[in-house]
Amino acid sequence: MKPPPKVRIDHFPVGPPMMNALMEETLAAMREDKGEGDDDGEEEAAEAAQEEEGQEEEVVETTARRRQLRRRKHSKSRGGPLRRKLFQANFHTTLSGECIVTLIYHRNLGGEAEGAAWEAAAELLRQRLLRAASEFGCRSVDVIGRSRGVARVVEKDHVQEELEVEFGGRKNGGEREEGGGAAEPSPPSSPSSSSSSSSPPPRRSLRYRQTEGSFSQPNGRVCESMLGWAWRAALGSEDTPRRRSDDLLELYCGNGNFTAALAPAFRRVVATEVSRSGVASAIVNLAENAGEGDDVVVARADAERVAAALAALDKGEREGEGGGGGDTIAAAVAETAEKDDENNAGENEAADDVFAGVVPTSLGGNADLSTFDLRTLFVDPPRAGVGLVTGRVLARFDRVLYVSCNPESLAADVAALVSAKGEGSDSAFGGQRGGGTHEVTAAAVFDQFPYTDHIECGLLLERKKKEELN
Amino acid sequence: MTTTIAAASSASSSSSQAAAAAAATSTSTPPEPKQQRRRFPPLAPGSVAPEEYEARLEEKVERVRSLLAGVLPSSRSEEPLRAGEEDGGRQQREPAPFPLEVFASADQGFRLRAEFRVWHDGGDLYYVMFDTVRSKLKGGVKEESLGGVGARERERKREKEDRSLERKKTKKTKLFFVHSETLR
Asked: What's the helix, strand, coil split of chain A in %, to 5?
């Protein structure tokens, strides 16, 4: 298959000025990074060109000929330790001004001499980049070199991001929620809602650790909008933000991006994530942002397993029995660990380490789902959506807050909630939606990816009141 | 077609009330056909078009609205009009689109992370991105619009001509120079 056409990037207006400064300076450093025997490069290239000229009458170059030429050119591009066989450059900037430049090579950086030479050059590059980008708000630069199976880090592999999030009462569709608010009384016995200090400030600065190579929201300002919207949607209609009296379950919590913002809105939060590095970052980020009265449990577990555990718990309750073996999140965690162990048995200890940090000490290791009042669900799943298994438990929540980068999978996942199954009644009412246990009460679109077809959207679905169900 | 889009655009100032108001007062049209013609072709990777930002966002928002058509309630259609609201009688029965709160991005400098392939070209090196989006379009990408393989081939040919001219004056030649304005 023909590879897609390449586009040379000299200026990158998609990225902030800080990134452009880093890009330019990195390239300048590479151009200056001469290795031994590079001086004859121009001469050799001239020879190659002359050879090319000799075949000028040959109008169509064959693919093989082009490849041959390219190979020759590559063998000529030697360069010093920074430049030689440099394959890719990744730039990770933040609103806070901390940056990482990752250089990926088609040569082994693992060797002692090779690695030492690279690290020395990278340290000089690091200082040079910081000088060049500081006028654009750059506060720190780290340089990471990668080759197959090797990562050399100068000086650290993560940055600290700071997001300013507008909190405050819900603005949108508030009048629709008047009844809904009354239906959810906050009992005075609630541990945190009684004290005034539990009311979060209207504007908060959230700090996040972002690890190189792990997912983070690419558009910082829009991420701030998303966090603010999610907060308002989660709180409900009340004008003065106040901690809810029920608990939140968050699946796919990643590095705790939304968890940190939503924690002050709920009595307690259970957040789950299957990726090890995600859980580790989430723990750091939640500790960093923990406010008074926040109570968050992070567990490393597959979303579907948590959903299954929840379904088993609900079934047990309906049957009047004390729940089966699958009713705790510990079971889901254990299952995830087992699955891991099958894949890579050597990582048992690493897994144990993560588990040791997963659950805050106050909970003594296991989070028993039956002790939570999980009435709100937050999900920001991968593009494919939550899928069937998790999709089935959406309906058990009074409120489902769903953020998605794929409107199609979002629509498919919540379709069963908002329309009666298997009925063709929609068309009979001229597009009016009927049936279903829930309805969308707030919807938002976030332009995370300008000028592309990608877009992020969010829905709040709330359970209909009894009289609305028919 | 334009009326519902107008409703969405006013919301992009992130004022949802404006959106709701605009939605309520606009003359609604029946649901649009699913296959909309896109007004804006995708851009080359790494480029922006700030003057088109708002319109491009509106187009996206409309696409989201049509994708979520089966999920969003057709809100307020059955609710009585509020007192004092100016509204023509004929609009009363028509459903207003459910308010979508739209959060716009900055129109440039918005992306905090980016990855580039490094291209070694003779003695020089530079960043490249692959034009995956546009190469998938029907009919492919117009060559003259970007520095793809075709453009580079032609560029190289032109360089050769330039070089042979140049060589008549001096032995020293500059190689693999690429005109930046052809490679946006």
From this structure: 45, 20, 35
- Domain chopping of chain B, boundaries: 2-91, 117-182
- Note the pLDDT of residue A360: 36
- Pairing type for strands A6-9 and A86-92 reads unpaired
In tens, the pLDDT along A100-112 reads 999 999 999 999 9
The span from the CA of B9 to the CA of B25, in Å, is 14
Assigned token pair, A422: 């298997």
For the record, the structure tokens of B123 come out as 């003695």
Q: Take residue A281 and report the two structure tokens written for it.
A: 């970052």
Per the listing, tokens 């709100």 go with A376
| C-alpha to C-alpha distance for A242 and A50, rounded to whole angstroms | 76
Q: Where is A166: in which H helix or E strand?
A: strand A158-166
Report CA dihedral (A166, A168, A172, A176) to the nearest 10 degrees. Answer: 160
The answer to whether residue A166 is catalytic is: no
Look at residue A73 and give its three-state secondary structure: helix
**Which ipTM score applies to this complex?**
0.77
Instruction: Tell me whether B88 touches chain A (CB under 8 Å).
Output: no
Which of B111, B107, B129, B133 lies closest to B119 in space, CA to CA?
A: B129
Annotated catalytic residue A224: no
CA–CA min distance A67, chain B (Å): 12
pTM of the model: 0.72
Q: What is the greatest pairwise CA distance in chain A?
A: 90
The string of pLDDT tens digits covering residues A340-350 is 555 544 333 33
Tell me, what DSSP letter sits at residue A14? T
Give the list of residues 6+ apart from residue A447 with CB closer than 8 angstroms, or none: A219, A222, A455, A456, B57, B60, B102, B103, B104, B105
A124 close contact with B: CB closer than 8 A: no
CA gap B61, B22 in Å, rounded: 15
Count the alpha carbons within 13 Å of A349 in the hemisphere toward its beta carbon. Answer: 1
| SS3 category, B20 | helix
Put simply, the chain B residues between 91 and 120 with a CB less than 8 A from any chain A CB are 95, 98-120
- Rounded Cα gap, residues A323 and A331, in angstroms: 12
Instruction: Show the tokens assigned to A300.
Output: 């490393």
Sign of the four-CA dihedral B180, A16, B8, A415: positive
In order of their start, the domains of chain A are 18-27+73-156 (2.40.50.1070), 160-184+197-468 (3.40.50.150)
Alpha-carbon dihedral sign for residues B14, B18, B20, B26: negative
